[in-house]
Known about the structure:
Elements: H1 23-30, H2 34-42, E1 50-51, E2 57-58, H3 61-75, H4 80-83, H5 88-100, E3 113-117, H6 119-125, H7 128-131, E4 139-144, H8 147-157, E5 164-172, H9 177-187, E6 191-199, H10 201-209, E7 213-216, H11 221-230, H12 273-281, H13 290-314, H14 319-347, E8 350-351, E9 360-361
Parallel strand pairs: 3-4, 3-5, 5-6, 6-7
Antiparallel strand pairs: 1-2, 8-9
Helix pairs in contact: 1-3, 3-5, 8-9, 12-13, 13-14
Amino acid sequence: MSPRKSTRRAPLPASPAQPSFRSGAVARLADMPVSTLRIWEQRYQAVAPSTASTGHRQYSANDVERVVLLRQLTLHGHAIGSLAGLTIEQLRDLFRTHEMNPPGAPGRDAALRIVVVGQAMARRLERPAVDQLWSTAPEWVAVFDSLAEAAQAGALLKQQPIDVLLCHAPGLQVDVLPDLKAAQQAWRARHVGVAYRFAGAAARDALVKSGASVVREPADDAALVAWLRSLVPAGGVGAQVHAPARSLKGADPWSLDALGLPAGPAPARRFDDATLTEFAGLSSSVGCECPSHVAELLMQIGSFERYSASCASRSPADAELHLHLQRVAGAARMLFEAALERVAKAEGLVLPAGNGVPSRAADTAA
């Protein structure tokens, strides 16, 4: 995560464990580029990892603690050249002086301590637009590529408990649960949040039963921050967003409200298939094929909308699901109907009449 957040990370306790971390993992734990880590080693001899037979550098937990302390102290304004020769005990003492005098005025909101699993989510959270949504930036303790890596690091480093273990899962499966529990236990995470893109009902139900807060990854940054804030009970450690946002904790991630779609039935189709077929044929006179593509998509969405409606009326057991699909398709159709008008206007095409919509020259519409 970016050092601009100016957040504190507690030092990692010493451990006699054998070397087990590569430079990439150490750099992520310390929130710094690998290139900087190598400069500290080669130019300042600030840390001396061992070398495996493969030629890769290997770092023990003591090495990792030293790197993290060095990184935090440089963020406090110390020069690496003045720190490199200090013993681990001296580095700890110096860090404690900063711990006893934290930045900010009395009453300052405490920062959420978060471990992130998933580089894509970490990159999103460090964007300035997201950073500005917090009154107090979270303390990004570490970022990992996988839950297994997070569990290994947490068990070895034994840091103080964290507030949130945040896992980003592009595709969520049931078999993630053991690794999720292991990572939570290793980091002693008080709360677990899982943001996914695609998932089956079995995976979602299993994680919810385990106590995790599970949600489809919010597309809106304010909603994402609001969800993260909701993982910690009111009055607990954490920051608040500047503007109120709907809490997603405990909500059905597939509800029309969560998806930002109208809850009621969609209006009737504005263009029937015959009208759309006629419009699609107009695209041959222009270089861009978008008019044809949008018209074809509208026909497909309209067909699926009607199909879902018929399933809802014929299968009582699946009525709720198919009614939901019908309304989602209807909302998507409304968006593409508006898109069709915009494409027609941009291409100077006449939008044919359909379903009571009068014919007009789209390029003259204001």
